[in-house]
Write a structure and sequence with these properties.
about 425 residues, alpha+beta, Vanillyl-alcohol Oxidase, Chain A, domain 3, six-stranded antiparallel sheet, 20 strands, globular, binds flavin-adenine dinucleotide
């Protein structure tokens, strides 16, 4: 298997690595290279450095994307870990099954979804991705180990949300969820301010629910946005139009304050006061940004950060204050989401907690870094946490304080990987393999 020295980046394009990548295509080749342990990476949809290994080796899993078995009666599928969520949805929705949890991009691989224990727009009732994983097969040097919620259960738990530190996830068995076709009935409603927004999200009984928030609106309009609720529905729609791509880095002014404010105002008014209903293909609903390839170039050469936190339900005033700071900074981009989360989480280092999660993108500028540092402190004080899949800036002590099971996880990660061969730029930056 050949190794190629490459410069590669996280999705935010702020952090990059120079290192050797191998892209095995066959299980035998993967087992061979995994004998000398190094981290596995997926489609690098994590924004920061979770999938980077500077000056070291990493296994790009994206060609390991076969479906190894499927039981049409139970919806249990066995896959190689490099298959993407979008591919799974595409293949199985017409057969009446979809992944039980889907993040906002179909390009995330199953390995990446397990290693970040991702959540979807149904987290409030379906929990996290790892809660629908029935087993994983891990490669740890010469060893091939299967872990399930009952067999090697500590290893299983340390692997869900374990940012790849327990070994290369070669295969996984997943429980899919039934669906009647590949369409969604979607309802959109406007919320004029923060209180209305929260009330609508709290009151929603829809299976899938998420709020787009105008993170530039201030004063009485702070927190205004559009609540999107959706249910799986019967039917099949024609295949979507081919994706477009962003051909080059956008100039700095493309996401300047006045342009973002004007865009957000128009996006808000797009939905009439009485609301709007539509039928969408599942990929248009779940992965709206995937239609534009390389949209991360819209932020220009310097890239961008996503700040995503979650705070407990009794800390909504703190979250409102954070949104106020963001709105007054004039730094936010149109991509901003507010969502109610349930308690579901599958591993020690899983992000979700019962509460509200806020995610906002910022072009990478020095003042955005300062703002994010302030938001990190406020999140910690509110008893919340930051999401490692999105992070490029946090500090180790803050993350350790936010993840109370971190110490237990380091012991299990050390048992699986005593030499820290699976360490990445992220685990080194945040000193995550160290309990203290
Ligand atoms: C547009 C967009 C929308 C998103 N929406 C959501 C969302 O709604 N909810 C959410 O939770 N996340 C969301 N994300 C984040 C994304 O789902 C996660 O970052 C996910 O981990 C990406 O998968 P990946 O295959 O690209 O993994 P990578 O980013 O390549 O890797 C992530 C981590 O997984 C490890 N890893 C990957 N594959 C393996 C393997 N086979 N074995 C062992 N370790 C492995 C890597 O070492 C790394 O630590 C979004 C990202 C984008 C770009």
């Amino acid at each position: 298997m050949s190794w190629k020295t490459t410069e590669y980046t996280g999705w935010g394009r702020v952090l990059s690595a120079n290192g050797q990548l191998a892209r095995p295509e066959r299980a035998r080749a993967l087992s061979e290279i995994a004998k000398t342990p190094c981290p596995a990476i997926g489609n690098r949809r994590s924004y920061g450095d979770a999938a980077l290994n500077s000056d070291g080796k990493a296994i790009d899993m994206t060609r390991m994307n076969r479906i190894l078995g499927f039981d049409a009666g139970t919806g249990v599928v066995t896959v190689e870990a490099g298959i993407t969520i979008g591919e799974l949805a595409h293949v199985f929705a017409p057969k009446g099954w979809i992944p039980a949890v889907m993040p906002g991009t179909g390009f995330a691989t199953v390995g990446g979804c397990i290693a970040q224990d991702v959540h979807g727009k149904n987290h409030h009732n379906a929990g996290s991705f790892g809660q629908h994983v029935l087993s994983v097969t891990l490669l740890q040097g010469d060893k091939r180990t299967t872990a399930t919620p009952t067999k090697n259960k500590d290893l299983f738990r340390a692997t869900m949300g374990g940012i790849g530190q327990t070994g290369v996830i070669a295969e996984a068995k997943l429980q899919l969820k039934p669906c009647a076709g590949d369409v969604m009935m979607v309802t959109e409603q406007r919320a004029d301010n923060w209180d209305q927004h929260i009330n609508l999200l709290d009151a929603s009984t829809a299976e899938y629910c998420v709020g787009w928030i105008d993170a530039t609106a201030t004063g009485g309009a702070l927190g205004r946005g559009v609540i999107e609720e959706a249910e799986l529905a019967k039917g099949l729609l024609p295949t979507a139009k081919p994706s477009k791509s962003v051909p080059m880095n956008a100039p700095n002014w493309a996401l300047s304050g006045p342009i973002v404010r004007a865009f957000n105002a128009a996006y808000f008014r797009r939905v009439p006061g009485s609301g709007k209903s539509s039928v969408k293909r599942i990929d248009d609903f779940f992965f709206p940004l995937d239609k534009i390839h390389d949209w991360n170039r819209l932020y220009g050469k310097r890239g961008f950060h996503q700040f995503q936190n979650v705070v407990p339900l009794d800390q909504m005033d703190a979250l409102r204050e954070m949104l106020g700071l963001i709105a007054r900074s004039g730094l936010a981009s149109p991509l901003a989401v507010l969502k109610r989360m349930g308690p579901g989480r599958a591993g020690h280092m899983s992000f979700p907690m019962e509460g509200y999660t806020l995610a906002v993108d910022f072009p990478a500028r020095d003042n955005a870094k300062d703002l994010i540092a302030r938001l990190e402190d406020m999140t910690k004080d509110a008893g919340g946490r930051l999401y490692l899949a999105k992070d490029a800036l946090a500090t180790g002590p803050a993350i350790k304080a936010m993840y109370p099971e971190h110490g237990d996880w380091t012991k299990l990660a050390d048992k699986a990987d005593p030499d820290h061969a699976f360490a990445t730029d992220m685990t080194r930056r945040l000193d995550l393999r160290n309990a203290i």
